[in-house]
UniProtKB/TrEMBL annotation:
Acyltransferase recorded as keyword: no
Family, per entry: Belongs to the ABC transporter superfamily. Spermidine/putrescine importer (TC 3.A.1.11.1) family.
Source organism of the structure: Lentilactobacillus senioris DSM 24302 = JCM 17472
Lineage: superkingdom: Bacteria
InterPro entries: AAA+_ATPase, ABC_SmlMolc_Importer, ABC_transporter-like_ATP-bd, ABC_transporter-like_CS, Mo/tungstate-bd_C_term_dom, P-loop_NTPase, PotA-like, PotA_ATP-bd
Record's protein name: Spermidine/putrescine import ATP-binding protein PotA
A Gene Ontology term for the protein's cellular component: ATP-binding cassette (ABC) transporter complex
Pfam family, one: TOBE_2
Function: Part of the ABC transporter complex PotABCD involved in spermidine/putrescine import. Responsible for energy coupling to the transport system.
Lineage: Bacteria, Bacillati, Bacillota, Bacilli, Lactobacillales
GO molecular function, one term: ATP binding
Recorded catalytic activity of this chain's protein: ATP + H2O + polyamine-[polyamine-binding protein]Side 1 = ADP + phosphate + polyamineSide 2 + [polyamine-binding protein]Side 1
Length: 369
């Protein structure tokens, strides 16, 4: 197995009595696109700053190619950072902005010119060298910030929410361009965002964070289909999360019925939560549905209808369907074993039982296909 290019071992960070990172362990391999994903204040930017050398960890090790770099100054680390505000010099031309780091390192003028033109070509702004920063659009400034970072040929590129200031369409366009750029350069990207769709679209691997901890690591499909707990399931995409109990391997009970599932390894009668994504629910007639719901509202979202419905116990269901239905209609919902993901419950048993009682009547429990 290849040695990680970046490794954090038991890294913690405190500001006074406030702990912002708790024993962070992560590895970044050469040439992959990684994302730190989580809500504001979860510690993801602090991790970026520690790796970049802008702040020091309170404890733990930061390794670069196997060597500890905790005390190595930021300007001696073989990585570059693209900031949220791009941090371009407004009094310099595009060419001079990109060339700034090379000039600091006394790179020969001919090599500077070649490398700046190469960087401009990479970000598809070949003819922009003589322009002023004030003449550029938001998307163009973002590309120049990336060109300025990659011109130094870093082994790792750190990106701190660089797309947040862009409008929705440009942001999506830049997601494609960033991914293509990373693949063409073959260097490691570590991207920070709170946008779940952005992380799922761009990443080889995602670290989901909350309250200074990494809750789950995995590729986008695993994170989406196999969330480890309630927070991850709720934060990554949209979910219907229902409390239940594991009956046996591949059998789970919720809403007063037993269902075949694809999960195993959980103890019988252990409290669980069942996750069903809205796009995995199929609307059918009330008689054919595994559960019945009453449609409350529906909105047209372009490629699907977003439908809110409620079951007899008062639980809200979110459904994505390509077909509209009628308000107040009683419909059935179909889903298969692979459409459900069963998670261990991570609250207290008393809290679980209180919630479970509000969802189902155990006396009515019966088998259901």
């Amino acid at each position: 197995m290849n040695q990680p290019i970046i490794e954090l071992i038991n890294v913690s960070k405190k500001y006074g009595d406030q702990t912002v990172l708790k024993n962070i362990n992560l590895q970044l391999n050469q040439g992959d696109f990684y994302t730190l994903l989580g809500p504001s204040g979860c510690g993801k930017t602090t991790i970026l700053q520690i790796i970049a050398g802008f702040t020091q960890s309170t404890s733990g090790q930061v390794l670069f190619n196997g060597k500890q770099i905790n005390d190595l100054p930021a300007n001696q680390r073989q990585l570059n950072t693209v900031f949220q505000d791009y941090a371009l010099f407004p009094n310099m031309s595009v060419f001079d902005n990109i060339a700034y780091g090379l000039k600091i390192h006394k790179t020969p003028k001919a090599e500077i010119a070649d490398r700046v033109h190469e960087a401009l070509h990479l970000v598809q702004l070949d003819d922009f060298g003589e322009r002023e920063i004030a003449e550029l659009s938001g998307g163009q400034r973002q590309r120049i910030a990336i060109a300025r970072a990659v011109v130094n040929r870093p082994q790792v590129l750190l990106l701190d929410e660089p797309l947040s200031a862009l409008d929705a369409k440009l942001r999506k366009d830049m997601q494609y361009e960033l991914r293509e750029l990373q693949q063409s350069l073959g260097i490691t990207f570590l991207f920070v965002t709170h946008d779940q769709e952005e992380a799922l679209a761009m990443s080889d691997n995602i670290f989901v964070m909350n309250k200074g901890e990494i809750l789950q690591e995995g590729d986008p499909v695993d994170i989406y289909d196999e969330p480890i707990n309630h927070f991850v399931a709720n934060f990554i995409g949209e979910s219907n999360i229902i409390p239940g109990k594991m009956i046996a391997d591949y059998q789970v009970a919720f809403l007063g019925h037993q269902f075949e599932c694809s999960d195993a390894g959980i103890q019988p009668n252990e409290p669980v939560e069942v996750v069903i994504r809205p796009e995995d629910l199929v609307i059918t007639t009330a008689e054919k549905g595994k559960i019945q719901v009453k449609v409350a509202t529906q909105l047209f979202r372009g490629d699907h209808y977003e439908i809110i419905a409620f079951d007899q116990q008062g639980n809200e269901w979110l459904i994505h369907s390509t077909n509209a239905t009628e308000d107040d209609a009683i419909v059935g919902l179909q889903f298969g074993p692979k459409d459900m993901h069963v998670m261990r419950y991570n609250e207290t048993e008393d809290t679980f039982n209180h919630r479970l009682e509000s969802y189902e009547d155990d006396d009515k429990e019966s088998d259901h296909d």
